Structure formats: C-alpha cells, structure tokens
Amino acid sequence: MTTLEPAVAADRPPGPRPPAKRNRRSWTGWGFIGPFVAVFALVFLAPIAYSIYLSLFRDQLIGGTQFVGLDNYTQALEDDRFWDSLIRVSLFLVVQVPIMLGIALLIALALDSGRLYGKDFFRITIFLPYAVPAVVATLMWGFMYGTRYGLVGDINDAFGVTLPDPLSADLVLASIGNIVTWEFVGYNMLIFYSALRVIPHSLYEAAEIDGAGQFRVITAIKLPAIRGALVIATIFSIIGSFQLFNEPNILRQLARNAITTDYTPNFYTYSLSFNGQQQNYSAAVAIIMGLITMVIAYIVQLRGMRKGA
Amino acid sequence: MSTPLTAAAKTPTAPAAGSGKGTPRLRTPRKKHTPGRPKRSVLLTVLTGLMLLYTVVPLIWLVISATKTQEGLADSSGLWFADDFALFSNISDTFTYNDGIFTRWLLNTLLYVVLGAGGATFLAILGGYALAKFDFPGKRGVFATVIGAVAVPGTALAVPTFLMFSKMGLTDTPWAVILPSLVSPFGLYLMWVFATEAIPAELLEAARVDGASEARTFFQVALPLLAPGIVTVLLFTTVATWNNYFLPLIMLKDPDWYPLTLGLSAWNSQAETIGGDVIFNLVITGSLLTIVPLIAAFLLLQKYWQSGLAAGSVKE
C-alpha cells in the first residue's frame, strides 16, 4: 500500500487547498467510483457473505435446514474426495506452472535479446492462443489426442507405433497441463517481455563496460528487474491451477472414465451443488479452497518480494 | 483479502502485458556493436520457431479440419486436406443446423459482450478515473478490497452467486451472465494506472476554473486522453466475456440463451447421447467461427492495445 502514496499525492496540486473545495471534491469521487462499487458489492461481496452464511447450515432429513456451526468444515477436512482433488491440482501446480512460466520466460528473453529474426511475428503469434476460448482449445486438443481419428492416431499409423493414449487415466492430467500451457504461455511471455522492455538501457551499457557476458546480464540485471512480474505471473498461475475446471469439464466428454466429477476441487464443488444438491457443504469446500489459494498466493508474494531485495 | 495488493501496487508493469511500438524509446537509439544490437542468431530463431510451431499446429489443424465432412474427418490425416473441400457447406450447415441455433448463440454472445464487457469497461473507466484523480473518503478501503478480490477464486463465487440469483429470479436470464461480467478488477486497476499517467492534473484544474461541470470535464477532457487505455481494457474484458464458460454453464438452462462456448460444448457432447446426431464437423467449424473475430480484433487493434499497455507499464 505504501507505493500507492506517490500516485495519490502526485495529482494533488502543490500548496494547501481550501478545505471547502477538498470536501466538495471528495464526494465527487464517489460519483465516479460509486457505480463500480455498487455492482462489485452485488456480485462479489454479497456472494462471499452469502456463502459463509450457507456453509454454517445443513439440510437434514429430519428438522430441515439447521445451523450446524463449523460441522461442514470439519467434514470437508476429513473428506478424502476433497483431499484427492486438492493433491491432484497441487501436483498439477508444481509441474505445469514452472514449465509454462519457464518457457514463457525463455521466449521473452529471446525476444528481448534482439537476436531473433522476425521478432514481432513471433511475439504476436505465440500470444494468439490467449484469444482462443478454453472450450475451443480443449475441443481442439481433445480431437487431436484421439488415438483413432486424431493426430495421435495419425502418428501411430504413419510410424507403425502405438503411442500411449493421452486420455487414459495415467496421462490425462499431463494432457490437461499441455492444454493449459498452450493457452497461457504467450500471455505470460507478454507480461515478462513488457517488463523487460522498460529496463533502462544505461544498465546494459554499464554492464558492458564491466565486461559482463550475456548470461551474467540476464542473471544480474534482467531477472532481478522483472522480479515483480515473475511474482505476479506465479500468483495468477497458482490461482488458475487451483480453479481448474473448464478443461477437465470439457475433456470429460471424451475421457469419462479417466476424469471423475471430483477431479479438481472446483469440479467437486460444482458437482456437489448441481448434481448432489449439497449446497451448504459445497459452500464450505469453496471457502476452504479460497482460503488455501489466498494463503499460498500470500506466501509466494512475501518470498518473491523478499528474495534479493 | 488484500494479499496481492502490495505486489500489484509495487509492479504496475506486471499485468500490463505488451509493449513495442508505442513504448517510449528507452532502449533506442542503439549504436552498432553494443549489447543493444547484437547479431541475429539463426539457432535462437529456430529454437523459438519450435515454440511457434507448437502454438500454430492446433490452429492449422482447426482450419484444415473445418474443410472436412464428418466422414472426411474420420478418414483423412489431421494435418492435410481430405479429398472433398467442404468448408463452405460446413459453414452454411453450422448456421442452419437445428433452425439456426448457432446464429442465436452468436447473437447472445454479442449481447453479453456489448452489455457485459462494454459495461465493465465503462465502470472501470469511471472507477479508475476516480481512484487516480480524486481524493475521497474510503478510497483506500475501496482500492484494497477490489485488488484483494482478484485473489478470490472466481469460481468459488459462482455457486453462491447462482443460489443468490436464483432467489432473485435472475437465473436462466441474460442478466445472470451480464451482471457478474460487469466487474473487472483487472480493468479497474489498469484504468487507474493509465489515468494517473495520462491525465495531467493541471488540465482538470483548468477545466474547472473555466466553470466546466465534473461530468463535462470527464467526458470532454479526460475521456479522449484515456482512449488507448480504453481500447486495451475493452479488448481484455471482451475476451473474458466472449470466452466465458463456467458462469453461463451454471446460470443458464435454456439453450436459447447459451453463448457460443456453451453451445459448442453441447454440440460436442451430443455425440454421446444415444441416438444423438454426431456433428463433429460442425463443432470444429463452429469453433473456428468462434475464434476468428477475436483473433482478428487482436491483430487489427495491435497498435492500440499495445500502446495502451505499454503506456501503463512505463512508470519509473
């Protein structure tokens, strides 16, 4: 929050301002932010409050809806289906996110190095999958994964090999990881690239005078300079992994046995609400996931900002 | 709640992806043989080219497959054309299948984009302008809450929002999709950074001294200066709304209100139901038709959104 100060202070004209005027302006600000805050309260704050309220009740056969305190939470913490799904997305997180961000960073560094032919073409093309809906991306890859009609089938036919089925229970998580990587690698690349672009050129000149090589320039100047962007991208990716839903939900149409309705925590809360009619319990699971996500995002941010600062 | 706040506030550059043409020339001009203008490398280009291949192969597959009939899809190799070229019949079939439901989905998507993304952009402009240029009671609270909300898994909200909306009788109506789309914390953040940079306080003061009302000052002085930022936010909220799947999946039962994403998924799963019509060729052609407008928008508006993002990211 401290960094907010300069921005806020900068647009205030120097010198004291008449108190009456400041007062008038202060409420004018609400005239502009008011509509946003009103809708925000309706679609963000009210649902959060409502879901906390819901999570404290339970629908019982005898006695109808009853206040049960934190029972739903203790039930969730002992729920194997919840833990299995959480472990699954955690595995996804520790494997997919580093691969995706690593590739994005390498491409951003390559673009920024000025050593590429056709740099603009690379940048815009690799970014394009961001504009493809998750539904379409999953449908495309799902078709291509097919061992009979898809590309995997073509490779099998062409080379007379039998590749493992990407939609089998063992491989489907990796296949989902590939789809997510495809969708977001370019987006993260653009975040890193734009952070690299604003590094002052004078730093490179200084490094050259000191005789630093390419590798040294990257580790000593570029990476520290874009640490903020790296942290932000990591946090967004963590949130994305924990929220995983669209890809498994659509891929399930092709891999019904490999992807269960409790495949990810989010899928689980969705199934509880809409197939199981257990809305109260579902709300508790959703809140626990929200808390876990925020705690981990917070830890990443603290560590990321401290490192080498 | 306020978790990523400090991270976000410390690095206004970060989510502001993109750069390029509009960036103030921090690293040019360059002299030859300085580290700023190294020799181009074929090896590095080839390696990056592999990544490019990974990006475009699925898209090429989609374009080629959209030219095939249902039989052609099964018989031919994925990366080359089948004997018959059926793109145009596929396109007309996509639009006419089931009494032209695809057209209806397209119009629904446009409705959600115009009202949802358009509304979200408008609210973000007003809000960002207020945060950047006004001092008002509760400003910090507003900012902290909104930025903190980015960390709340959107999907964790979906179920309670559904239950709340169903009590209010909003589910299965377009409002159930439009209302939640109206809030874009990322858009607000971007407009706040952008308005701070782009609108000189003296200009606003001058307009006020001349006796212009606050509304007139906003529309005639501030709004034109915000144009590149507006295009950027509009593009990103459009992508978010156009590509939305989870929210409409939860909120809508009636296929007449489906957006394209939900409709395509329904067509795809239709093959599984007993006696269901297998129309993968239409799923594929429909997918292609769904992504073409967005890709075209990104390519055509490149200059605007990249300069919008770049201006937001230069904050020394």
Which secondary structure elements does this structure contain, and how are they paired or packed?
The complex is a heterodimer of chains A (309) and B (316).
Chain A: H1 4-10, H2 19-55, E1 57-60, E2 64-67, H3 71-77, H4 80-113, H5 119-127, H6 134-145, H7 151-159, H8 172-197, H9 201-209, H10 214-225, H11 227-242, H12 246-251, H13 265-274, H14 279-306
Antiparallel strand pairs in A: 1-2
Helix pairs in contact in A: 2-14, 3-14, 4-8, 4-11, 5-8, 6-8, 11-14, 13-14
Chain B: H1 5-10, H2 42-65, H3 70-75, H4 87-133, H5 139-149, H6 154-167, H7 174-181, H8 185-198, H9 201-209, H10 214-225, H11 227-242, H12 246-251, H13 260-270, H14 280-300, H15 302-313
Helix pairs in contact in B: 4-7, 4-8, 4-11, 4-14, 8-11, 8-15, 9-10, 11-15, 13-14
Please outline what is shown here.
With 309 residues, chain A is mostly helical. Chain A folds into 2 domains: 27-69, no CATH class; 73-306, MetI-like fold (Orthogonal Bundle). Chain A has 14 helices and 2 strands, in the order H-H-E-E-H-H-H-H-H-H-H-H-H-H-H-H.
